Recover the amino acids of this structure.
C-alpha cells in the first residue's frame, strides 16, 4: 500500500512539473476571494518550488468576484482552481477516519472529538491534486471517451500518453468525450489522461504571413518554424456592440458586378453560396488578389479540401504575388475531425490579432458546409441527439459565434477591422436548406451564384435578384454610387422587359432601347477568371455602359471594346484614371475630359469595327 501511495505521489508531482515547464518567468499569480494566511502562501511556494526544481515566487491578488475559492494562474492562460473549503473538508474527513472512535457513544462526545480535530487541522493546498487525471475508456475515429477528469472544463486541452493532446468536448456526468489532436494509434484503452489547465491556443502575428499552416498553427510548407511568440485562444467572445464602429469603409473586390451592385465594407460578413464548381472560391480568391497594396492581410481557411484543390489556390496566389500578404490555413479532408472543426476558429484568431492592433484583415472560410458536416460527424460519434437534416441542435451556434467575431472597431480602440467571407455549398440551388438559411441569417448579406447563369456563360454567375448587401451604399465610394445607381435601374428594367420579349410581345422603340442598353450592360458585368480590376478601371467601363456609349456596339464586341478602352485610357488619359483612384470621386473637370475621351474612342472603334486587324485608337 505504501508503495502504491508513493507511486501515485510521484505521478502527481511529474504532472505538476509539466504544468510548470511552460513558465518563462518563475512567477505565478494566486487569486483568492479573501485574504489568505501567509503561512498558507508559504506552503504553496514551497510545493511549487519543489515541483519545478527552481525557486518559484507567488504573487497574491484578492478578487472578491472570483467564482471559486482561489485560482492559480501559471503563465499563459493556465488557470487552476483551488477550492480551499473542499481541501479542508477532505483533510478533516481523512483525520476523522484515521482516528480511533471507540467510546464515542453520544452525539456530544462525537462533536467534541471533531472540535479537537478541527483545532489541530490547518488548511493545506495540495497542489499535486490539481492535475486531475482520467482513464481512457474507448478510442477510435478521432474520438476518445475518458472517465474521471472531474474538474475539466469545456474546450480544455487534455494530455494523453505519448504526448498526444485532445480537447474536452463533450462533458457528461461520468465521462468526457475528447477530440484527438494526434494519432489515435498512440493511445491505449486504460491509459492515463491529464488536464493541462488551459484552452486551445494558436500562434498569431505578422510572422505568419506568407506561410501555409495547419489548424494548430504549425507550418506545413517546409519553410521551418514560425517565428512568433504571440498566441491567442482559438475561441473568444465577439466584440460587443459598444466597441463596434459602423461599417462604412469600402472593401474593394475588383469584381465589377459585386462592387457596383452588392458593395462590401471592412468589418462585414458577406456569404458566398451556390452549387459546386460555379465560382464561389474564385470570387473569394479574386477578392484576395484585389487587396494588394490596400493594407489588408488576408487569411484563406481551407476546411476539408483536397490537397490538389489547395495547391491550385496557393499557386494562383503565388503567381500573382498575393502570398506576400496572405496566410493559408488548411485542414485536409483526410485529417482527424478535430482539425477540420478547429480550423475556422484558428483562422479567425489570426485575423483578430491584426484587428485588435489597428490593422485590417479578411478571412475566407472555404467552406462552412464541410465544417457543418464535420460537426455532425463529431456529434454522431459522441451520440448527441440529432435534429433537422441530422444536424445537432446547436449547429447554428457554432457558426454564429464564429462569424460574429467579424467587426469594425471604434477609432479609439484602434479602428481595426475583420471582414468575413464564408462560403456555403447548396444542392440544386436550394438556399432554403438548413445550413444556407442558418448562415444567411447570421451574415450581413449574400452573393448567390446561379447554375443557369453559369451554364449560359455569364460569369461571375451572380444572381442580382437574390444577392444583397445589407451594408449597401454606406460602404460604397462616391464615384461608384454615381455610376452604379443608374446601372441598377437599367438592369432591373431590362430583366422586366426581357420577360415580355420571350413571349413574342410587340414593343415600342423606347422598350427596345432599354433592352439594347441592358443587354450590353449585362455583357460588361462579365469578367474573366482571376482578373480583378482597380476602381478607376471599373468606373471607366461602367460609365461608358450606363451613358449609352455601348448602345451601338455589337454585343459580341463588347469585351473587345472594354479591353481596348482601358488600354486607351491608360495610355492617353492616365490623369483621369489617377484622379478617380485618388479622390474616389469623379470631379467635374475630370468628367468633362472623360466624356471627350469616350466620344473619341467610341467613334474610332465603330469606324474600324469591321476591320480584321487589331484596333488602335488614333493619337
Amino acid at each position: 500500500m505504501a508503495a502504491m501511495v508513493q507511486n501515485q505521489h510521484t505521478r502527481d508531482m511529474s504532472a505538476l512539473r509539466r504544468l510548470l515547464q511552460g513558465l518563462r518567468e518563475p512567477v505565478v499569480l494566486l487569486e483568492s476571494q479573501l485574504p489568505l494566511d501567509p503561512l498558507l502562501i508559504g506552503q504553496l511556494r514551497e510545493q511549487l518550488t519543489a515541483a519545478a526544481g527552481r525557486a518559484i515566487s507567488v504573487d497574491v491578488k484578492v478578487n472578491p468576484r472570483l467564482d471559486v475559492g482561489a485560482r492559480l494562474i501559471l503563465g499563459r492562460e493556465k488557470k487552476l482552481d483551488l477550492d480551499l473549503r473542499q481541501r479542508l473538508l477532505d483533510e478533516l474527513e481523512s483525520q476523522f477516519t484515521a482516528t480511533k472512535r471507540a467510546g464515542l457513544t453520544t452525539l456530544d462526545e462525537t462533536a467534541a472529538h471533531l472540535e479537537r480535530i478541527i483545532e489541530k487541522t490547518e488548511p493545506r493546498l495540495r497542489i499535486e491534486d490539481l492535475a486531475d487525471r482520467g482513464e481512457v475508456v474507448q478510442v477510435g475515429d478521432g474520438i476518445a471517451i475518458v472517465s474521471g477528469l472531474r474538474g475539466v472544463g469545456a474546450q480544455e486541452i487534455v494530455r494523453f500518453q505519448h504526448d498526444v493532446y485532445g480537447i474536452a468536448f463533450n462533458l457528461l456526468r461520468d465521462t468526457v468525450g475528447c477530440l484527438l489532436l494526434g494519432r489515435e494509434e498512440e493511445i491505449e484503452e486504460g491509459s492515463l489522461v491529464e488536464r493541462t489547465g488551459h484552452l486551445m491556443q494558436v500562434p498569431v502575428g505578422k510572422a505568419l504571413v506568407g506561410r501555409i499552416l495547419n489548424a494548430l498553427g504549425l507550418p506545413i510548407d517546409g519553410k521551418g518554424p514560425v517565428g512568433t511568440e504571440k498566441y491567442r485562444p482559438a475561441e473568444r467572445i465577439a466584440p460587443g456592440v459598444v466597441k463596434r464602429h459602423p461599417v462604412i469603409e469600402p472593401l474593394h473586390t475588383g469584381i465589377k458586378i459585386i462592387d457596383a451592385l452588392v458593395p462590401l465594407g471592412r468589418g462585414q460578413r458577406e456569404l458566398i453560396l451556390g452549387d459546386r464548381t460555379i465560382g464561389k472560391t474564385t470570387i473569394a480568391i479574386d477578392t484576395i488578389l484585389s487587396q494588394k497594396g490596400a493594407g489588408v492581410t488576408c487569411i484563406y481557411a481551407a476546411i476539408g479540401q483536397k490537397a490538389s484543390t489547395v495547391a491550385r489556390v496557393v499557386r494562383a496566389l503565388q503567381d500573382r504575388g498575393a502570398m506576400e500578404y496572405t496566410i493559408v490555413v488548411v485542414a485536409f479532408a483526410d485529417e482527424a475531425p478535430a482539425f477540420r472543426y478547429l480550423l475556422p476558429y484558428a483562422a479567425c484568431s489570426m485575423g483578430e490579432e491584426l484587428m485588435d492592433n489597428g490593422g485590417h484583415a479578411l478571412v475566407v472560410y472555404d467552406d462552412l458546409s464541410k465544417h457543418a458536416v464535420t460537426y455532425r460527424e463529431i456529434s454522431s460519434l459522441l451520440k448527441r441527439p440529432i435534429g433537422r437534416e441530422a444536424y445537432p441542435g446547436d449547429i447554428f451556434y457554432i457558426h454564429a459565434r464564429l462569424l460574429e467575431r467579424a467587426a469594425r472597431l471604434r477609432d479609439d480602440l484602434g479602428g481595426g477591422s475583420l471582414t468575413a467571407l464564408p462560403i456555403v455549398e447548396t444542392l440544386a440551388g436550394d438556399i432554403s436548406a438548413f445550413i444556407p438559411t442558418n448562415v444567411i441569417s447570421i451574415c450581413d448579406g449574400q452573393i448567390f451564384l446561379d447554375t443557369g447563369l453559369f451554364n449560359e456563360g455569364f460569369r461571375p454567375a451572380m444572381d442580382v435578384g437574390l444577392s444583397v448587401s445589407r451594408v449597401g451604399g454606406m460602404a460604397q465610394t462616391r464615384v461608384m454610387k454615381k455610376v452604379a445607381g443608374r446601372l441598377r435601374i437599367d438592369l432591373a428594367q431590362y430583366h422586366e422587359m426581357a420577360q415580355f420579349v420571350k413571349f413574342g410581345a410587340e414593343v415600342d422603340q423606347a422598350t427596345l432601347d432599354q433592352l439594347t442598353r441592358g443587354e450590353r450592360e449585362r455583357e460588361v458585368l462579365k469578367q474573366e477568371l482571376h482578373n480583378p480590376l482597380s476602381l478607376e478601371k471599373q468606373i471607366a467601363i461602367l460609365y461608358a455602359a450606363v451613358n449609352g456609349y455601348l448602345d451601338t456596339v455589337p454585343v459580341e464586341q463588347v469585351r473587345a471594346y472594354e479591353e481596348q478602352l482601358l488600354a486607351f485610357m491608360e495610355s492617353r488619359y492616365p490623369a483621369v484614371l489617377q484622379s478617380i483612384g485618388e479622390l474616389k470621386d469623379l470631379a467635374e473637370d475630370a468628367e468633362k475630359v472623360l466624356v471627350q475621351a469616350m466620344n473619341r474612342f467610341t467613334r474610332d472603334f465603330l469606324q474600324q469595327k469591321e476591320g480584321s486587324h487589331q484596333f488602335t485608337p488614333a493619337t
Remarks:
- Residues 1-9, 612-619 have pLDDT under 50 and may be disordered.
- The chain has four domains: 13-104, 132-200, 245-470, 479-608.
- Residues 245-470 form a domain with the Rossmann fold fold (CATH 3.40.50.300).
